[in-house]
Amino acid sequence: MTLILAEGKQVKIEPKGTYVIVAITKHGVELARNFHAKFPQADLFYMSKFERGDEDGRDISLFEGNVRLLLPSLFKSYKGIIMIVSLGAVVRMVAPLLKDKKTDPGIVVIDDKGENVISVLSGHLGGANELTREIAELLGARSVITTASDVQKTIPVDLFGSRFGWVWESAEKLTPVSAAVVNEEQVAIIQESGEKEWWTYDRPLPDTIKVYPTIDDALEAKPNAALVVTHRNLQESEQAILQNGVMYRPKVIVLGIGCNRGTSMEEIDQVIQETLSELQYSVKSVKAICSIDLKKDEEGLIAISQKNNWEFICYSADELNRVSIDAPSDTVFKYTGAYGVSEPAARLYSGADSLSLTKKKSGNVTISVAVIIH
Asked: Contact 341/260 with Cβ under 8 angstroms?
């Protein structure tokens, strides 16, 4: 999408993410594209003169004209604005737009080399300080935060696990759960899957935040709020934990897929949805589709991967044959050179000793499912 900016005319923005990244220089655009791929909660806008040709497939928006004319629309549309622009220029551009700290979005500035990440505006209520830390961690950069009261060092509920690609199931309880965390009420964390390195501060977890092995254990403790990290759908008896809780979906599900040539994206999608429903897994936790390199140009697989922003990884027959599988097939070997596709592909990517689903054939599609164990 190219946005034509005209004096005095606001551009209509249709946000997909909570945050937006804006870049206006050659080096800034390169940094922004790499960062955007690792930070799925953000949309990306950059100047059309830096167009690469893959913007539509990557959900990147282009604009023409002065970036200052884009800012009023971004202010209304996003919780946080990440600008790869000089600090002085950003201050001058946003100054006329400021209202109050309760409504202004968080503003974060990154320098053109990605060495410094600076919290500029709405550090607390707007979340710019925590956003700054998350971005700096992701980029390996220096975070610059100047608010004196920022010594509390606790969990940013709306950004929890964002550097790993975790996404919320629902934003409905973000505000009350955030309040429970910052007000030092009793908060439970239950993590069934996903990366474990989410606590990055140089001090122990606060006494008010406790990690429980299971949802049942947490329910018994009756916390004021909860953070639940899991790839599975909760059972009815567990739903009470979400009365004042936020559920996060870590990217841990790997789909090994084989299919007949020309299988449509719609058929592949239907098999994926049905399979995950049977397993009681969330599609939001899918990380990658894996197959054999004979399928690297399979339009249906490429389309569904791009649609969902999933990785699409293909292995050679030799690589697949090095993996021990439950049911090697001479027929599959005859046509592909590998004794299996979906099962060994899922095992290779995930590194899992056992699969959630070894292999299921449905129509033109064969699927295997693995969960990455961190």
From this structure: no
Q: Are residues 25 and 134 in the same domain?
A: yes
Cα dihedral: 79, 84, 88, 90 (round 10): -30
**Do 133 and 185 reside in the same domain of the chain?**
no
Residue 256's pLDDT is what? 98
Q: Which amino acid, one-letter code, is at 130? A: E
Q: 351: number of CA atoms within 13 Å, CB side?
A: 4
Under 8 Å CB-to-CB from 148, ≥6 apart: which residues? none
Only one residue has tokens 């329910």, namely 219
Residue 298 lies in a domain: yes
CA end-to-end distance (rounded Å), the chain:
38
Looking at the structure, tell me whether residues 273 and 302 fall in a common domain: yes
pLDDT digits (tens, 9 = 90+) for 59-102: 898 888 888 888 988 998 899 999 999 999 999 999 999 987 66
Look at the chain and report how many structural domains it folds into: 3
Please say which residue of 233, 249, 265 terminates a domain.
249
- Judge whether 126 lies within some domain: yes
Tens of pLDDT, residue by residue over 61-71, are: 888 888 888 89
CATH number, domain containing residue 321 = 3.30.420.180
Q: Which of 79, 114, 144 is the last residue of a domain?
A: 144
Strand partners, 292: 315
Q: Which residues contact 284 (CB under 8 A, 6 or more apart)?
A: 167, 169, 249
> Which position has the token pair 């499912």?
369
Paired tokens of 331: 């027929």
Rounded Cα gap, residues 173 and 178, in angstroms: 8
Range of the domain at 367: 253-371
Compute CA 238 distance to the chain's CA centroid, rounded to the nearest angstrom. 25
Whether residue 204 is predicted with pLDDT greater than 60 in this model: the reply is: yes
Q: How far is CA 240 from CA 227, 243, 326, in A?
A: 12, 5, 39
